[in-house]
Amino acid sequence: MTEALSLVPKAEAKQSMKDFKSDQEVRWCPGCGDYAVLAAVQGFMPELGLAKENIVFVSGIGCSSRFPYYMNTYGMHSIHGRAPAIATGLASSRRDLSVWVVTGDGDALSIGGNHLIHALRRNVNLKILLFNNRIYGLTKGQYSPTSELGKITKSTPMGSLDAPFNPVSLAIGAEASFVARTVDSDRKHLTEVLRQAADHQGTALIEIYQNCNIFNDGAFEALKDKEQAQEAVIRLEHGQPIRFGAEGGKGVVRNPSTGDLEVVAVTAENEADILVHDAHAASPTTAFALSRLADADTLHHTPIGVLRSVRRPVYDTLMAEQLDTAVEQHGKGDLAALLTGNDTWTVVG
Amino acid sequence: MTSKVSSPAEQADEVNGSDEALVGEQRRRAGEKEIRRLDRVIIRFAGDSGDGMQLTGDRFTSETASFGNDLSTLPNFPAEIRAPAGTLPGVSSFQLHFADHDILTPGDAPNVLVAMNPAALKANIADVPRGSEIIVNTDEFAKRAMAKVGYETSPLEDGSLDGYSVHPVPLTTLTIEALKDFGLSRKEAERSKNMFALGLLSWMYHRPTEGTESFLRQKFAKKPNIAEANIAAFRAGWNFGETTEDFAVSYEVAPASAAFPTGTYRNISGNLALSYGLIAASKQADLPLYLGSYPITPASDILHELSKHKNFGVRTFQAEDEIAGIGAALGAAFGGSLAVTTTSGPGVALKSETIGLAVSLELPLLVVDIQRGGPSTGLPTKTEQADLLQAMYGRNGEAPVPVVAPRTPADCFDAALDAARIALTYRTPVFLLSDGYLANGSEPWRIPDVDELPDLRVQFATGPNHELADGTEVFWPYKRDPHTLARPWAVPGTPGLEHRIGGIEKQDGTGNISYDPANHDFMVRTRQAKIDGIEVPDLDVDDPDGARTLVLGWGSTYGPITAAVRRLRATGTPIAQAHLRHLNPFPKNLGAVLKQYDKVVVPEMNLGQLAGLVRAKYLVDARSFNQVNGMPFKAQQLAHVLQEAIND
After folding, report:
1. Which 3-state string (H, E, C) describes B474-507?
2. Is residue A335 part of a domain?
């Protein structure tokens, strides 16, 4: 379908969502946002039209990391935080595979933070789905690295002391070539983001706001409640002015004196100044500034959509090219010649 | 004129059981310097970390190898890249033992010490027996430099070196003088003094010089003036030996032709042999090699070496940390590569959880641990064997992992192939336990014929392997081979075999998540049974005289133990020797072997880890002999210990 997946074999027959459902019973809590994401991914996969034996889902540990068991593809449920590293080895040794990582805010940003930033900077051909519910679910409700400051949880009865990460800002700072954000309950938007991520060459990070109805219910209500969402959500579309609110009454402009971005009420005078979203901008500066618009507590002015999508060399392609170059320069490896080397002597019996 | 004289190698560490080893011959042609024939020599080059002693030793080793001597080397250097100049901790040395016959160790005590400064003399003199030759760079013996290491008076003048044959040579001055036409600064010219020393030693021992000259031309290909300056210093050192009266005698050590089976040989270090073994295993398995690694002493050279051979389809991934190194390797193993991670003890600690995952996933994975002094950062550049129990048990849960240990530098090649065989056949992570002594030490290696290498090809799963009650054909990822208990290796891209694996306990057969108590008990026992059932050759026992005492070793202690055993037998003391390559599982006959002897002695460079294992498993009263000083055993010391054990 796309250049990014040109080495992955195509399915011989038309696929349906059913083809991607495994025979395993899904065991998330009833009402969990993970169900919606699973359905969206299973629904999207036939569109890619890839041979499903060439698709691999790799996960770490946490509620969302059970995801691979429910996909009728190859899959590995690995250990806490390490999925990006494991997937890097798989993707860089098998360019004929479409490799997806499923992780959560604890898995990717706490114990696995190092692997995440390094996968992003290398630009390995991975699609990372980061389910962010701003809480530890599987260990029953401790605060996570994306929980708001002062969060009361079982491990922080007087409120957490940690300032949270903004995963999109973090990814952009880690040289990510593709960064997007979407919401579990907005299947259409989620699917469109998956489509663009699949089409991207290199590492794609998709932060999915996902509701944990047991330990952090309603964490993203401001973005989901129809009335609140109008003011809270900024939908980004490449090439379109960044406007939101009732009848697009609000917009994002650049403050000419500070260079920073701010939200203004759109008027006839300032309409021409409304920033036009450029996901492909070479510089990450504006994407970063957009990622900072959201209020960490109220989530107001949260941009969703593809914040950044740029082309730069892909690690596994470069690795394969080095192998080809080495063969061109030195010929295909000759084991006998290697073992012999240049400095030998002979003993005659 | 020919006469028999006692060779300076008299105090050498190995005795072949006859007096021949102690006897040389002496020749002198009219007007020429005397040439003495020796059966073996031990030379130690010692200087500052920045003096290029490792390079000097390497070059002398290459010359010696291409001349056809048997040899064994012991590089010994500080962990600091450039420790403070002229200090005792900054001393770097390289010991080389070479002979006209088969030898096993780098030697206990040098016959010749080359000391480039007072610190090098002070740090090494205790190891050098009286009667030995000492070549000192007198230029460096200024008052301040001597005071820095605690010499109040000059050891060259105060009689403290009486009994040694001291050759005072102003190496720095002579080098600068030899290079005066090269337009180099004093500092630049001085740097070639190691090549002057190498030239002098090359003259003393009749080493071929072409190799070093072409090496220097290649090393400094982009700076031809520096190349020529080094060659000039090298030749000046040679000529100095030939013309100066102080060096009245030179020595010949004949090639060790008789000691070696017919074949083509090269010199090889343990890390190089191990790297080649991995490439060979990949070729023999017809699987691409994937190395995931994080730099760590003394394992990094394997990463460096493998990264040079991308034309063999070798992928090397320098990860962000130890965990990612093994993680990427495991991912590649899932994808069908021959996957390897290389590290040392601290890295193994970090990789433990992923090794446990590999045990659970039952995928082939080589974990190469080049052991160094521990715990924690320990002694990064020194050797030790104290990771055995970490390799055996250092994981949560019952997580058995096979352990393979090479015994000499060249043996690292075969051990790597053997570890790959086990990993691929049994679908399991395998520990390859080398150490710093093997990694950096070198010896001659008979280059194997590639047609003789073992066939390591594996069969990936290609279709369903199980029929359900209703007749449906399905693929069960944990349905095992009844003989090996290995599960099928179904790589992504194989249609119809889509499956999910993970670290959660799996149901026997289907591989689905299972928390069933009886199933877990079964799976734990089955994983153990798979490792216990790995086919390894029986242990060979070398016991020509019907001894009552057995010395049992593993890994890099092979050289010193064998040298000690030879010494005892040369004095008429019977002793049996056996050396383990497989530490998990043990050879099937090990228990029976141990019970045949009245006494079992286990020398180890740890506090008795193998001894503890065999005591626990076989209820034998194995005695430990331990050394954890970062250095290999000395043959004489081991011979003494073994003699005491026999007499006891």
Report:
1. ECCCECCCCCCCCCCCCCCCCCCCCCEEECCCEC
2. no
Q: Which chain B residues in 473-502 lie under 8 Å from chain A, judged by CB atoms?
A: 492-502
The CATH-assigned architecture of domain B541-647 is 3-Layer(aba) Sandwich (3.40)
Nearest-CA distance from A182 to chain B in Å? Answer: 27
Contact call for B66 and A349, based on CB within 8 A: no
Nearest to B257 by CA among B432, B446, B536: B446
| Nearest-by-CA chain A residue for B325 | A85
Whether A236 and A165 map to the same domain: the answer is no
Angle between helices B53-67 and B210-219 (to 10 degrees): 140
Neighbours of A58 (CB within 10 A): 33
Q: Could you say which residues from 12 to 71 on chain A have a Cβ atom under 8 Å away from some Cβ of chain B?
A: 22, 24, 51-56, 58, 68-69, 71
Detail the DSSP E strand segments found in B155-248.
165-169
**Residue A77 pLDDT > 50, yes or no?**
yes
Q: Measuring CA to CA, which residue among B564, B544, B282 is closest to residue B420?
A: B282
A48: domain range? 3-219+313-327
CA separation for the pair A322, B648 (Å, rounded):
63
Q: How would residue B22 be classed by pLDDT, with cut points 50, 70 and 90?
A: very low
Q: Which residue has the tokens 């359900």?
A: B468
Q: Is any Cβ of chain B less than 8 angstroms from the Cβ of A115?
A: yes
Burial of B308 (0-12, 13-18, 19+ CB in 10 A): middle
Q: Closest Cα to residue A294, out of A278, A282, A305, A283?
A: A305
- Cβ–Cβ below 8 Å for B447 and A344: yes
> What is the number of structural domains in chain A?
2
Which of the four pLDDT bands, split at 50, 70 and 90, describes residue A1? very low
CB-CB neighbors (< 8 A) of B495 in chain A: 51, 53
Mean pLDDT taken over chain B: 94
B333: closest CA of chain A, how far (Å): 8
Structure tokens at B562: 């064998």
Shared domain check, A213 and A236: no
The interface predicted TM-score (ipTM) is 0.97
Tokens 């459902």 belong to: A21
Domain B265-452 belongs in CATH node 3.40.50.970? yes
**Percent of chain B beyond pLDDT 90?**
91
Q: What is the pLDDT of residue B27?
A: 52
Chain centre distance of CA B442 = 7
Element (H, E) at B533: none
Distance in angstroms (rounded) separating the CA atoms of residues B585 and B529: 10
In this structure, the answer to whether residues A127 and A13 fall within a common structural domain is yes
* B585 preceded by a cis bond (ω within 30 of 0): yes
The answer on A148 and A39 residing in a single domain is yes
CB of B309 less than 8 A from some CB of A: yes
Q: What is the pLDDT of residue B82?
A: 80
Please say whether the beta carbons of B527 and B487 come within 8 A.
no
CATH of B3-8+34-255, one of 3.30.460.10, 1.10.150.20, 3.50.50.60, 3.40.920.10: 3.40.920.10
| Integer CA distances (angstroms), B277 to B274, B283, B331, B366, B464, in order | 5, 10, 22, 12, 34
Burial tier of A163 (Cβ tally within 10 Å: 0-12, 13-18, 19+): exposed
For chain B, the structural domain boundaries read: 3-8+34-255, 265-452, 459-535, 541-647
A339 to B280: CB separation less than 8 angstroms, yes or no: yes
Q: Measured between CA atoms, how close is B498 to chain A, in angstroms?
A: 5
Strand partners, A234: A303
Q: Which domain CATH number covers A126?
A: 3.40.50.970
Instruction: Take residue B507 and report the two structure tokens written for it.
Output: 């149901």
Quote the pLDDT of residue B479.
Answer: 98
